[in-house]
Amino acid sequence: MAKGKLVIVGGAEDKGEDRQRYDSDIAVDDYYENGILRRIVDESVKKEKSRIEILTTASLEAEELGDDYKKAFARLDANNSDIMNITTREEAYEEKFLKRLKAADIVMVTGGDQMRLTSILGGTPFLSMLHDKYEKEDFVYAGSSAGAASASNNMVFQGTTEASLFKGKVRVTSGLGFINNVIIDTHFVTRGRIGRLLQIIVGNPRLLGIGLEENAALLIHNQKMEAIGPGMVIIVDGRCIKDSNFNDIDDGEAISIENVTLHVMSKYDIYDLKKDKLNIDHRNNDDEK
Asked: Are 109 and 117 in contact (CB under 8 A)?
């Protein structure tokens, strides 16, 4: 069992920069005390003193995106952060980046293109060290959007909302491999991606589908997944599927499925991966936990 912690975020998480969307008192509480980035910092052993590397490899707007995260962590008094923009496979072999990774307590993997991320890091010493830290150290891997979608062994990388429930219109490849037997999708409700997970799950019901809405996240540790942030998480469980036409139709035809199980998680709910059981927290989210 991994010693480290995995935080997967659905994208567009609150970075404390837009306080106009909320009542000011609620906004301060949401971001500075209960926000996703706050929880990422708190889960690290060194808290605000943690060395945070912001890995922007997936993005073509690395400097701007990395700077947004630096400012967001600084708002939480976590000032020991820097941007790590590995843009080629050659750079993923360089000692300067490996040295920085070795000293990191948290790696924040930003959004962008998950295929760019996996094609650059896959099979490199950088990814090997990242795995080693996650398996053996008190270390936090945090990924948002592409950084979350690529965290599992299986990774969705293609499939439009409109065509996602037509056979063959969703593509899956290998991810970074920090968690097995799940498939993760992001921006889930906002971009209407339920069909993508349904097609993947009917093709292999062994996989547990995780749909992360924007500004929602899961903290995964010790075979349990805790929902954090104000958004929702959708769990798609295909083990109870009774019937489908998946093997009877040609590519491009519509898929039928009987008896898929869906769970909806909100803040503080916990899904036990070992028991395949969702435990809903019935206390008010405004109460002190």
From this structure: yes
Residue located via tokens 């630096």:
70
Q: Could you tell me the end-to-end alpha-carbon distance of the chain, in angstroms, rounded to an integer?
A: 26
Strands 270-272 and 243-244: unpaired
pLDDT in tens, 49-63: 999 999 999 999 999
Residues facing 184 on adjacent strands: 155, 210
- The dihedral built from the CA positions of residue 120, 78, 271 and 266, taken in this order, carries a sign that is negative
Q: Across residues 24-49, what is the average pLDDT?
A: 85
Starting at the earlier edge strand, list the strands of the sheet with 152-158. 171-174, 152-158, 179-185, 208-212, 233-237, 261-265
> By the 8 A CB rule, do 278 and 265 touch?
yes
Plot region of 101 (φ>0 → left; ψ -120 to 50 → alpha; else → beta): alpha
pTM over 0.85: yes
Token pair recorded at residue 51: 């060395």
- Output the pLDDT for position 289: 46
DSSP state of 214: T
Q: What is the mean pLDDT of residues 174-195?
A: 97
DSSP per-residue letters across 147-187: HHHTSEEEEEEE--TTTTTBTT--EEEE---SEEEEEEE-S
Task: In whole angstroms, give the CA distance from residue 51 to residue 278.
Answer: 33
Three-class DSSP category at 203: helix
| The two three-digit tokens of residue 80, written as one number | 């020991």
Residue 97 corresponds to which tokens in the numbers above? Answer: 């980046």
